[in-house]
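Here is one record:
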Amino acid sequence: MSTSPIPGMGLLKRIEDFDGFSAVRRVSPESISGQLIGAVRKLDEREELEPYIRLILHDPNETPHGPAEIADIFTHKVSIQKLTVMAAFILKGRSFETVKPRDVAHQIYRLEKITGLAIAVFAASGTVLDAAKEQFVSTALRLGCNYSIFDAVDLARLFVAYGFLCVPR
């Protein structure tokens, strides 16, 4: 069982709460067009989502995908409220228009193997079914860690803020 060093453990954290994603504060959710959301939904989780987030976090430690992988991104390069913490990211991109519990159950289960996990992030560009969200949130709460859910708007804001996507004119 994890005990998060972040004040208010077991809380939902917004993308703005991540110190390393601070530039996202300059991009309002209202500025994200349907065209940008469409562009985010076309991003591949392995070739685009993961590398973009790793670049923003300044974490070059890419692990091979497969049975030994604990999370899509498992990193110590995250800080929240100026506290550096262990974070695990589960990423779903264009391969998952709709994310169902069966699509992520194995990844959510693996979170339980991480001692000292302070925050779990579920980032998906498609529609996430409520049952998948519930499974993710209940696991995070059982582990005593904070959690975040990034949707297509959050990802678009992040990638616009850091120059991976451009706002159409």
